[in-house]
Amino acid sequence: MRQLLDLEPAWASHDYFFVTEDTALGRSIGEQHRSHFIPHYAAGQARLGHTFQMLGGAVRNFLRSAAIVLKERPQVVISTGAGAVFFTVLWARLLGAKIVVVESFARFDRPSLFGRLAAPLAHELIVQSSTLVGYGPRAKVFDPLRILDKPRPPKEPVLFATVGATLPFDRLVRSVGELKAAGDIPESVIIQTGEGGSRPVGAEVVETLPFDEVQSLLVRADIVVCHGGTGSLITALRQGCRTIAMPRLFELGEHYDNHQAEITQAFAARGLIQVANTTDELRVALRRAREIAPPCATTDPSALIAHLQGLFQGWAKKTR
Known about the structure:
With 320 residues, the chain is an alpha/beta fold. The chain has helices spanning 2-6, 8-11, 24-30, 44-47, 51-72, 86-94, 113-118, 170-181, 211-220, 230-238, 259-269, 279-291, 302-319, and strands at 18-21, 35-38, 76-79, 98-102, 124-127, 140-141, 145-148, 156-162, 188-192, 204-206, 221-226, 242-245, 274-275, 296-299.
């Protein structure tokens, strides 16, 4: 979703709408843009033992996606995943829309399941890591990651811990709470826990936050402890935060696969973040983060935006 927002210059001049899940982030998008919400489902639910929940969500998603596409009749669909929008892409393709699939920036070494399933439907396939170019013969590479050579903005003694917009992540929340109680975190602590997440004492706790409030906190916060999603990592790095990631792990039932471990390993290898999987590792990561000058980094989508604008113009000429 955050990358689709970064691509706004490519789609904003058209009659557009969003299709996304009904999460805090999705609802904040819906307040600013015309949006439709679809039920959540993911193949990983079956791997976690929730097969019937997955199938029920998939059936509802299939029908809801059909209703949206039949009503809106889009001429072009651009998707950065994830799996919940697969049926929207499929229905749109069956009804004649042009499909642009942008493989998730979260995938550095191997494609996502959504990418593998949606690639055959795509008129244009974009990957964001050079190691993925071979998985689709028509794939074009646009690596958006850029290190910023700029002064770090002024910061306050605040640690912001965030688990993301979708699921609780009690391992991260408890680790931050334990270190705050033990005196290892002298900064003021604000924790976004997810709906129904644990609520440690000694910190300001909120379940969900609109995206603009998250952005405001990142401007202030010296340290960010987050899950391993690329959106959370990039938004923290853009603001020069000392960024520590605790990836959600499949074997602990925290996610549908281990792609967050892949993401955090790639970011850590570039010297952008610290990684921790336990409370003790988080204590060490905090010490290391405070000892070094934090880098600033961002994703620069300008080349991809220009490519998409040219692509849309070419398709428009052919339909006149």
